Amino acid sequence: MEDPANVTEPEPTSSPRPDGLPARETPVPAGDRAPLDIARRIVELAEDKKAADIVLLDLGDLTTLADAFVICSGGSERQIAAIADGIISGLRDEKIRPIGREGTPGSHWVLVDFGSVIVHVFTPPERDYYQLERHWSAARVVVRVQ
Q1: Distance CA 128, CA 90 (A)
Q2: Which of 76, 77, 57, 75 is nearest to 67 (CA)?
Q3: What do you get for the CA distance between the two ends of the chain, in Å?
Q4: 50 falls within a domain
Q5: Which domain holds residue 70?
Q6: Over the stretch 98-129, which tens digit does the pLDDT of each residue have?
């Protein structure tokens, strides 16, 4: 049981944003690295696996869901798996582990959640169908690799 003298009260939270979502004081931590640094490294790792049309979106001012999205395309189920596996392996070597991985190459969309950064790897038809870049059009495009 904790000593009541050593218990601190939680800091008061700031008022909600105009859209009703809670304001976030600081970005979600992912180790000691800034979310955009991790996202830029993910872009490099995706390039290493020949991902196409890579986009890094800064979502920090728009949502508490994540600070950044990295969206990219692979030409086949095998390439989608290679891109996702390459990103996970490359960051694991840097002591950054994913929180989760959803989807399969057979579904033509693999999502890898690193907490503050979420990676979406699509085949081009699914990417065109879901149009995440259009949905998050208010986000700042940090990097675009064709």
Answers
A1: 27
A2: 57
A3: 57
A4: yes
A5: 30-145
A6: 999 999 999 999 999 999 999 999 999 999 99
- How many domains would you assign to the chain? 1
Tokens of 92: 């694991």
C-alpha span between 12 and 54 (Å, rounded): 39
The pTM for the full model equals 0.78
Cα–Cα distance, 33 to 80 (Å, whole number): 26
CATH assignment at residue 135: 3.30.460.10
Decide: helix, strand or coil at residue 133.
Answer: helix
Q: Rounded to whole angstroms, how far apart are CA atoms 39 and 58? A: 9
Q: Could you give the CA distance from residue 111 to residue 119 in angstroms, rounded to a whole number?
A: 6
Q: Is residue 4 part of a domain?
A: no
